[in-house]
Design a protein that fits this description.
Distance between the termini: 27 Å
Shape: elongated
Order of helices and strands: HHEEEEHEEHEHEHEEEHEEHEHHHHH
Radius of gyration: 34 Å
Helix content: 55-70%
Structural class: alpha+beta
């Protein structure tokens, strides 16, 4: 007897007990569906983190002013501007791993255009800021060094600001007011989306650093060259940790800090933070898949249970088939095919359930899911393996029955 004949007999036997077969497949259906849906949820989280890493800019370090002490009282981080434009120039000049170091200042202001206004963040930056952040321009031109040197009143708009002030109209060449100072729009930035903290990166305007200090955000009375942050982009292939250490040592030397003194600045490796989140998301995906896989094992146990019952019920049939010439191998193949058929049908239905479940999770929970062909193949293959593994023992038991004893069974 060939496998095709065994499959035909197995299918006929399963159709005799449709309800029992359906209930047996239910465990496999739930297991496969749960695996696909949970892996989709985890993959969606990983994809979101990857997008956030890309939106921040590759190999990015951000240097911020640190805490200072005054009269024995330790003030909070960023309470005094302790880094300068010269620090940024020194970092780019002396640290070989650095591609670009862009100083900047951050503040907030109400942006006015005609009878419309919008409160947003204002960044005073140099022309190298866009390179540091891997930020492209949708239309217009970037800030030039002449804009920074001459403190010109030009502005680049983020997508959110442009949408709220201009709608679908072209903002290029329009005049907007920032703290009553007129600025000409020279560029519309590409969309960046939200960062890992849920902040809208497109709700921002960029103006020349010198203009921000002199006309919008003000300057530090202690040091007119001080800045709020320095965005540092490390060259591709360079060691981020080594570059961070080198930058820290350079700044300590420039700020004349003694070995016993704490840093008066903070260096944040944003890519490292987000990569840690990505690893956490990957672990979550594995955990969810492992939990969902338990359902497949439970479904496999259900298949073994039903197949053992089937062997008991059909003992006389097995004996009769052996008496007319069927070999033990034929009986083994028949019952094994029955178990695998249950698993495969359950697996196919489970795939549909898993894809549908992922879609519902995305729609109702507003949680991004990403169902890959790889996860579908693995879940389906695992369901077939479960059928073989848990169906082998009942099939082997049926194949080893003694024909005479089987014919006498009542």
């Amino acid at each position: 007897m060939n496998v095709l004949q065994s499959a035909r007999i197995a299918t006929r036997a399963l159709r005799v007990n449709k309800l029992r077969s359906a209930l047996t497949m239910l465990g496999i259906i739930i297991g496969v569906g749960a695996v696909i849906a949970m892996v989709g949820v985890g993959a969606g989280a990983q994809a979101r983190v990857a997008e956030q890493i890309q939106s921040l800019g590759s190999n990015l370090l951000v240097i911020l002013s640190g805490s200072v002490s005054a009269g024995g009282i330790r003030l909070g981080a960023g309470s005094q501007l302790t880094i300068t434009e010269e620090d940024a120039s020194a970092i780019q000049r002396e640290v070989t791993a650095v591609q670009v170091a862009a100083p900047g200042m951050r503040g907030g202001a109400q942006i006015v255009f005609g009878n419309l206004n919008w409160g947003t963040g204002v960044l005073g930056v140099t022309g190298s800021y866009l390179e540091a952040r891997d930020w492209d321009i949708d239309s217009g031109r970037p800030l030039a060094q002449e804009d920074v040197d001459g403190a010109t009143k030009v502005v680049m708009l983020g997508q959110t600001v442009a949408q709220n002030l201009f709608g679908d109209a072209d903002p290029l060449g329009q005049i907007i007011r920032i703290k009553k100072v007129p600025f000409t729009v020279i560029a519309l930035l590409d969309r960046k989306g939200q960062n890992s903290w849920g902040q809208d990166q497109d709700d921002i305007v960029l103006i020349p650093l010198s203009t921000a200090k002199k006309k919008v955000l003000g300057v530090s009375q202690a040091n007119a060259r001080s800045v709020g942050f320095i965005s540092v982009k490390i060259r591709a292939g360079e060691d981020m940790s080594a570059a961070e250490t080198e930058i820290r040592e350079l700044l300590r030397q420039r700020h004349r800090l003694q070995p016993y003194q704490e840093d008066d600045f903070n260096v944040r490796n944003l890519s490292e933070i987000l990569q840690t989140q990505e690893q956490s998301s990957r672990v979550m995906t594995y955990l969810l898949a492992a939990i969902a896989s338990v359902s497949l094992l439970v479904g496999g146990i259900g298949i073994m249970n039903i197949m053992l019952v089937s062997v008991t019920e059909r003992t006389r049939e097995i004996g009769l088939r052996m008496a007319v010439g069927a070999r033990g191998r034929d009986i083994l193949v028949q019952f094994l095919v029955e178990a695998v058929t249950l698993s495969l049908i359950g697996g196919l239905i489970g795939i549909a359930v898993g894809i549908g479940g992922s879609t519902l999770i995305s729609y109702f929970a507003e949680w991004r899911t990403l169902v890959s062909a790889e996860s579908i193949v693995i879940a389906f293959g695992f369901s077939a393996a479960v059928g073989v593994f848990f169906g082998f023992y009942p099939a082997r038991k049926a194949a080893r029955l003694d024909p005479i004893d089987a014919l006498r069974y009542e």
